[in-house]
Amino acid sequence: MAEEQQRIEFSDNAAEGRYEARIGGTLAGVAQYLRAPGVVAVTHTEVEPAFEGRGVGGALSHHILQAVQEAGEKVAPVCPYFARYIREHPDYQPLVYDKHDKHEPG
Q1: Contact 47/55 with Cβ under 8 angstroms?
Q2: What fold does the segment set 8-95 form as a domain?
Q3: Integer Cα distance of 42 and 90 in angstroms
Q4: Of 48, 77, 55, 56, nearest to 65 (Cα)?
Q5: Which CA distances in Å does 104 have to 33, 78, 92, 94, 99?
Q6: Whole-prediction pTM value?
Q7: Sheet holding 26-36, edge to edge
Q8: What confidence tens digit (pLDDT) does each residue in 35-81 have?
């Protein structure tokens, strides 16, 4: 029998510089980030051992990318897991920050 999927709740803990994923009120995973104007650099993603293999990391990555897109920002995928998620979901590629996209005052 398939285990019942519990809902993952997400929050942006700006004071700690991380997005958090919780299942049943328990911290299941985090994605650390640094912010610059218009850019969110995701530096590390970690899922708690008790929640590994449940799609928490992917759901957290998806949530971050949706939030960044809604805010009109870009991401800098420093974290290897987060970078791989974007490669595997190419629809998010336009959200990746490229320093050559900046408009310099001319």
Answers
A1: no
A2: Aminopeptidase (3.40.630)
A3: 17
A4: 77
A5: 25, 24, 25, 20, 10
A6: 0.87
A7: 8-13, 18-23, 26-36, 39-47, 74-77
A8: 999 999 999 999 999 999 999 999 999 999 999 999 999 999 999 99
